[in-house]
Specification:
single chain; about 120 residues; alpha+beta; four-stranded antiparallel β-sheet; three-stranded mixed β-sheet; 3 helices; about 25% helix; about 35% strand; globular
Length: about 120
Amino acid sequence: DGVYVAEPKIVPDAKLNEQISYDSMIEMANMGAGVLKTESVEMAKKYRIKIGVGSSYTGKVGTIVTDYSLDSSSIDGIISQKNMTYISVESDSSEVRKRLFEKMAQRRIKVQTFLNHNNSAEFIL
C-alpha cells in the first residue's frame, strides 16, 4: 500500500506515510525496511525523480518519495530487527527531537546510537 511508519504486521494501526523524503527512505532501507532498495532511492534522489510506492495488486500509490516529508515534525519510520530498533525523526524544530530524547531517558530506554542532523535525528535502540 505504501511506506508505513512501522511494520503493519506488528503494529496493526501503523500510519501510512503519504510523502517521505529520499533521505528518510534511504535510511529506512539501509536499516532493513524491505519496501525499496537503497540504490533505487539514491538514483531517484540524484536525478530528482519522485517514486510512487503502492500495492502491486491494486496499482494504488500510497506514498510518494521525494525531496521532503509531508509532515516536517513526525517520525518517518521505525525499523525493528532482532535486538535492535531504528527510529528516524524529521523536524525543523530541535525542541521536538529534544522532547523525544527526554521521553526515552525518562523511560530508561537505552539509546545505542544517536545522530543529530540539521532537521532530523536518528536513534538506534
